[in-house]
Amino acid sequence: IMYLIFGIWSGMLGMSMSFIIRIELMNLNNNFNNNMIYYMMITIHAFIMIFFMTMPIIIGSLGNWLLPLMLSSSDLMFPRLNNFSFWLLLPSLMLMILNLFVNNNINTGWTLYPPLINQNLITLNFIIFSLHLNGLSSIFSSINFLSSIFIINN
Questions:
Q1: Which stretches within the chain are classed as H helix?
Q2: Mutual orientation of helices 2-26 and 35-47 as an angle, nearest 10°?
Q3: Any residues with CB less than 8 A from the CB of 56 and at least 6 apart, and which?
Q4: What is the CA angle 136-139-144, rounded to 5?
Q5: Is 129 exposed, middle or buried (0-12, 13-18, 19+ CB in 10 A)?
Q6: What integer is the mean pLDDT of 56-61?
Q7: Is the Cβ–Cβ distance between 152 and 135 less than 8 Å?
Q8: Which residues does 55 contact at the CB level (< 8 Å), separation at least 6?
Q9: pLDDT at site 69
Q10: Where are the transmembrane segments (predicted)?
Q11: Residue 128 pLDDT > 60, yes or no?
């Protein structure tokens, strides 16, 4: 259930960021007055919608909670690995938001990686470590999901 609540909250946050981006695109005058903030908003919007909404809802809540419940294997619903993978998402989101408040943001537009040499080292570390925590969370959730399916089949 934690995954579902976190995914819905992230979806609302991402949807509000999407509205802000669309308002910026519709106006002739720039609301942000700074392309760096606009590009950072686009990058964080993509990360939030992919890593904090889609993956926790599909892998975390539906795969690790709903599937064992539907197969009457309720003892597989809340293993420790699933909880550990959930709690990796919160520091990852904090690092990504903290990146907004540091002087030079990662601002390559639609992608994160191409001109890494031009970026500030601190913000680069924040964003890359955030993505690694997200990846680790997804790997743990996937391992938990696959082991649940394996246990159910046996």
A1: 2-26, 35-47, 55, 67-70, 80-87, 89-101, 121-153
A2: 150
A3: 3, 4, 6, 7, 10, 86, 89, 141
A4: 125
A5: middle
A6: 74
A7: no
A8: 134, 137, 138, 141
A9: 72
A10: 6-25, 37-64, 84-102, 123-152
A11: yes
| 84 CB-contact burial (10 Å; exposed 0-12 / middle 13-18 / buried 19+) | middle
- Dig out the tokens for 71 from the structure: 């197969």
Q: What is the pLDDT of residues 71-101, one digit of tens each?
A: 776 666 556 666 677 778 888 888 877 777 7
Q: Dig out the tokens for 137 from the structure.
A: 């969370």
Q: Which two tokens stand for residue 143?
A: 């391992």
| Structural tokens at position 30 | 């720039």
Task: Give the tokens for residue 59.
Answer: 């892998």
Question: What does the chain come to in residues?
Answer: 154
Which amino acid, residue 101? Answer: F
Domain residue ranges of the chain, discontinuous segments joined by +: 2-153
Distance CA 87, CA 127 (A): 18
